[in-house]
Design brief:
Blueprint (H helix, E strand, L loop, with lengths): L3 E2 L1 E4 L17 H14 L3 E4 L1 E2 L6 E2 L2 H4 L3 H7 L3 E4 L9 H11 L3 E5 L3 E2 L16 H8 L4 E2 L3 H15 L2 E6 L2 H12 L7 E7 L9 H15 L3 E7 L4 H10 L3 E4 L6 E3 L2 E2 L3 H14 L3 E2 L2 H8 L10
Parallel strand pairs: 1-16, 2-3, 2-13, 3-6, 6-7, 7-10, 10-11, 11-12, 12-13
Antiparallel strand pairs: 4-5, 8-9, 14-15
Helix pairs in contact: 1-3, 1-10, 4-6, 7-8
Length: about 300
């Protein structure tokens, strides 16, 4: 795997709303089509959320997930990674319902509770496609994304032990890396661990080169060599810090969940466009992109034949 880079694509998420981009996939058909195109462009892992088909509001309905998961699996060999983060405005049971139904190879796991502020985005728009959008954003001013130690332990047991699922450990600050290292010392986690450094969310670490160096140094100190990392930078820092992460020996995540643009002031037309751009950068740096099976080997996944969809 030397010089191989795993590209993850986060296809739709629960942060951006339909008003913000006409290219944000909302319906199961749109999510499936954009996921398949992103895989064809070079994404080895697809990080997946769902939305209510008529309104675009984030959804944790397992039936909505099942409207696109089998279709993506039939069309591509990509690793399908289901979010357990859902939205800060969902309960833990709601957030876990899709993954418990699908028993996927991989899930995301936020490594702590935190303020998760997306309310500043509300000020950029005077008109909205759907009535729910401004209230959804504003609610994050007074809502904490909850993943307590007990919540994390429940997810590790229910999905990790119960379903053989492994995790994209989402670390929004260095304290999350400390929590991850503590669970590893307790014997609840086996390597290799796959960390996602999440940068630029209001309430977490900011998207700055110095902070990326700090997060990598913290992971090295606390986890030693038994981990792999990827870099997710929100908004306009997506490509720059993602590239820096590759230079530092890591992997990279792009997608319309994390940024709606392809360059300053220009909306990305699709997830595949972002994947194609970061792939060009990775290959110009002298690396190769990892295939889905190489990503499976790197992270120690159970295989796409052992899921429930």
């Amino acid at each position: 795997m030397k010089n191989k880079v795993v590209i993850t694509c986060a296809v739709t998420g629960s942060i951006h709303t339909p008003t913000m981009s006409p290219h944000l996939p909302v319906t199961p058909d749109e999510i499936a089509e954009q996921s398949i195109a992103a895989a064809e462009a070079g994404a080895a892992i697809l990080h997946l959320h769902a939305r209510e088909p008529k309104t675009g509001k984030p959804s944790a309905d397992p039936d909505v997930f099942m409207a696109f998961l089998p279709r993506i699996k039939q069309a591509t060999d990509a690793v399908l990674n289901i979010s357990t983060g859902g939205s800060s405005q969902m309960t833990l049971a709601q957030r876990l319902a899709p993954a418990m139904r699908a028993e996927p190879e991989m899930c995301s796991l936020n490594m702590g509770s935190m303020n998760f502020g997306i309310f500043p985005m509300k000020d950029a728009y005077a008109e909205w496609t759907h009535d729910w959008e401004p209230g959804f954003l504003e609610a994050t001013r007074d809502v904490v994304f909850k993943n307590t130690f007990a919540d994390i332990e429940h997810i590790l047991a229910a999905l990790g032990e119960g379903c053989g699922t492994r995790f994209e450990f989402e670390c929004y600050d260095t304290g999350h890396i400390q929590t991850l290292a503590w669970y590893r010392r307790q014997g609840l986690l086996k390597g290799p661990l796959f960390l996602q450094f999440v940068m630029g969310v209001l309430g977490g670490i900011d998207a700055a080169p110095e902070q990326l160096v700090h997060m990598k140094a913290t992971a090295d100190r606390l986890l030693g060599g038994d981990y792999h990392f990827s870099v997710l930078a929100a908004g306009g820092r997506q490509m720059g810090l993602g590239t820096m992460g590759v230079v530092m020996g890591g992997n990279v995540r792009v997608g319309l969940e994390d940024s709606l643009t392809i360059r300053r002031g220009e909306l990305a037309r699709s997830n595949a466009e972002q994947v194609a751009k970061i792939r060009r950068i990775v290959e110009e740096l002298g690396h190769e992109i990892a295939t889905p099976d190489e990503a499976r080997s790197l992270i120690g996944l159970k295989g796409g034949d052992r899921v429930a969809f």
